[in-house]
Design goal:
Layout: H1 8-20, H2 25-32, H3 36-43, H4 51-61, H5 65-69
Helix pairs in contact: 2-3
Length: 78
Amino acid sequence: MGREVVLPGFSERIKLLRKEKKLKQKDMAVILECTESHYQKIEYGQINLPILDIITLANYFGVSIDYLLGFSDRRKRR
């Protein structure tokens, strides 16, 4: 009975951050301990991530969770 929420900002930001670090989707799959096809679905906005994976990504890229989710344009954490 949950509703599906799509966060387009997240998909765009994760792809941008990945490309800035010159990483491939398979590299991201290793970081998140998932398959490459699963990661592709994350990047296409088809799968929502658990909060622990979002925290992992924010820490890895050194950005705030708000930035990663598209709620803020401020990259750095306070």
